[in-house]
Amino acid sequence: AQSVTQLDSHVSVSEGTPVLLRCNYSSSYSPSLFWYVQHPNKGLQLLLKYTSAATLVKGINGFEAEFKKSETSFHLTKPSAHMSDAAEYFCVVSDRNGGYNKLIFGAGTRLAVHP
Amino acid sequence: DTAVSQTPKYLVTQMGNDKSIKCEQNLGHDTMYWYKQDSKKFLKIMFSYNNKELIINETVPNRFSPKSPDKAHLNLHINSLELGDSAVYFCASSQVWTSGREQFFGPGTRLTVL
Q: Which residues contact B7 (CB under 8 A, 6 or more apart)?
């Protein structure tokens, strides 16, 4: 069975400092992993995805994530936070098992960015 | 052009009423989904259709009935609305039905049941 644990429900950083949002996953098969971002009262936007190619994945707006199979982790990072990064971030897993495309969401991490 | 669109954006109604939410995608995708986001922001899949055929039907009350008139449209009808149905409902689409694919989400419909 698939599951996702986002280790922090809230993260607060100062503008210009690094961002780290932590995610651990559980999967019986080779997973696809995604990070989605949801700005207040908006829909979900795909930040980046891992689908078995390079383990270091670069996304939009300067975000990147590294797939570490040995640690079952897919942490999201950004070198320098911007005020516009304040949002809810979701780590998502989908087993690549030939079955239906069911995304399993983590509980979300709310990122606050202070001036 | 909006890739995945939903109407209405907001829906406020009384308990016991019946309401529908509509979704359209112009990405040419075969597969569409409905997700529910509760008050704690948790997202869970409800249904999925592939080319008008129901392929995922999670444990959802029978009061919820999806309909897909063609592969670009997926509607959600809810009968006898209850307070617990208050949530944000997201429509999504993916190119095909097989696992591991990214999904593209609509802007959401915020349903409030009074």
A: B21, B22, B109
Q: Which residue has the higher pLDDT, A43 or A24?
A: A24
Neighbours of B50 (CB within 10 A): 21
Give the C-alpha separation, B64 to B80, whole Å: 9
Report the Cα–Cα distance between both ends of chain B, in Å, rounded: 34
Residue A112 CB neighbour total at 10 angstroms: 13
pLDDT tens-digit map of B75-101: 999 999 999 999 999 999 999 888 888
The phi, psi pair for A51, rounded to 5°, reads -135, 40
CA distance B24 to B81: 23
**C-beta atoms of B105 and A31 within 8 A:** no
A89 has a pLDDT exceeding 70: yes
CA distance, residue B57 to nearest chain A CA (Å): 11
Q: How many CB atoms lie within 10 A of CB B61?
A: 12
Contact B102 A102 (CB under 8 A): no
Between CA B29 and CA B97 the distance in angstroms is 9
Report chain A residues whose CB lies below 8 A from the CB of B39. Answer: none
Q: How high is the pLDDT of residue B1? A: 65
- CB contact B104 to A (< 8 Å): yes
Between the CA atoms of A33, B86, B40 and A40, what dihedral angle is there, to the nearest 10 degrees? 70
